């Protein structure tokens, strides 16, 4: 299998969330598996639960990260966030990159579900590639509004190189 690179924007975002070896993390929208690969490489006793609505995204992540699935560090499921069932208060972190759900429509139910399942002090880190600077204010406004509405304290990180905007919700 050819070596697959991890884009700088994904590296930066995963570095930002500061994965600890025992973290329990939910990745929303795992796509091709670059984030999952990097997160799982930093876990020891922790686990990543990666979801995507796309069957091809799930398949790509499973193939790319087969060693982590076999080691029990990664579970990948084709499911929509709205129907996700995770044991309450088990997650330390939630990670999403370029998941439009949080800024293109009302996501109050999904964000409330995340709030309910995060441990105290846990974080939801939602990142967008911000190459379309004209969309950034709407991304920040809508995502922040959803997080604040669920009870999160919100901060925004605007990284110029690579061009990434992060909206971070802390419980």
UniProtKB/TrEMBL annotation:
Signal peptide segment: none
Pfam families to which the protein is assigned, alphabetical: Methyltransf_25
Annotated Methyltransferase domain residues: 25-122
SUPFAM superfamilies: S-adenosyl-L-methionine-dependent methyltransferases
Family annotation (Gene3D superfamilies): Vaccinia Virus protein VP39 (3.40.50.150)
Protein name listed in UniProt: Methyltransferase domain-containing protein
Biological source species: Nocardioides panacihumi
């Amino acid at each position: 299998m050819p070596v697959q690179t991890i884009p700088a924007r994904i590296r930066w975002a995963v570095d930002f969330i500061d994965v600890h070896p025992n973290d329990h993390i939910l990745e929303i929208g795992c796509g091709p598996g670059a984030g999952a690969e990097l997160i799982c490489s930093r876990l020891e006793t922790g686990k990543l639960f990666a979801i995507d609505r796309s069957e091809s995204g799930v398949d790509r992540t499973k193939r790319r990260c087969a060693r982590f699935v076999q080691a029990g560090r990664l579970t990948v499921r084709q499911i929509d966030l709205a129907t996700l069932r995770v044991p309450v208060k088990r997650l330390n972190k939630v990670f999403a990159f370029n998941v439009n759900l949080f800024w293109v429509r009302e996501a109050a139910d999904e964000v409330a579900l995340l709030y309910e399942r995060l441990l105290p002090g846990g974080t939801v880190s939602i990142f967008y590639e911000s190459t379309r600077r004209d969309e950034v204010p709407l991304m920040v406004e809508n995502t922040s509004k959803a997080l604040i509405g669920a009870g999160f304290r919100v901060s925004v990180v605007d990284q110029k190189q690579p061009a990434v905007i992060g909206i971070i919700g802390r419980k």
